[in-house]
Amino acid sequence: MADPWYANGIRFKCTQCGVCCHAKGELAYVYVNQEERRRIAGALEKTLEEFASEYIAMDGRFYLLKFKDGKCIFLNEDNSCRVQEVKPTQCLTFPFHHDFMQDEESYEKYVRSYCPGSKDETAPLHDLKEISEQSNENAVAKFIHLSETEEFPV
Ligand code: SF4
Ligand code: SF4
Question: Long-range pairs for 110-118 at CB < 8 Å and ≥24 separation?
Fold first, then answer.
């Protein structure tokens, strides 16, 4: 099998600009699967019902973090994340999302077009193994989320 386009690694270092935590049209979605909902609710010392009521928006049968004033409800004024230690896999694995890594055009469109950390030529180089692991982790979390049904009410 041919090497992926990122076989030589990708430079990236988050500048904490907060842009990726703001709504961007079709990308205004942070999905949270059941395990993630439980993890964040626990860290906030909320019951699952309280957590869902305060922080979750539904998209059909899917669970998303609420956005308020165009930004994720957990984004602090200084662009730090209120749930940094327990944030969803979608956030943890950014920008090496399975969908974005399919080809360089996707990475340009969904990451480099707005993320300054992905354009820094001096940023640390992330190697193929690390990128692949994060991409796979992202894909698994998304698969779990898509597999959830109404049997998992909160
Ligand atoms: S857009 Fe990029 S640099 Fe800005 S907070 Fe998100 S990951 Fe970090
Ligand atoms: S959970 Fe944290 S990292 Fe993820 S979008 Fe919200 S503020 Fe950003």
Answer: 110/27, 114/19, 114/20, 114/24, 115/17, 115/19, 115/20, 116/15, 116/17, 116/19, 117/12, 117/13, 117/14, 117/15, 117/17, 118/10, 118/11, 118/12
Atom of ligand 2 at shortest range from CA of 18: 8
Please check whether residue 12 lies inside any domain of the structure: no
Average of per-residue pLDDT across 16-31: 85
pTM: 0.91
Each residue's pLDDT tens digit, 90-122:
999 999 999 999 999 999 999 999 999 999 999
Find the 72 Cα to ligand 2 centroid distance in Å: 6
* Domain enclosing residue 87, as ranges: 25-147
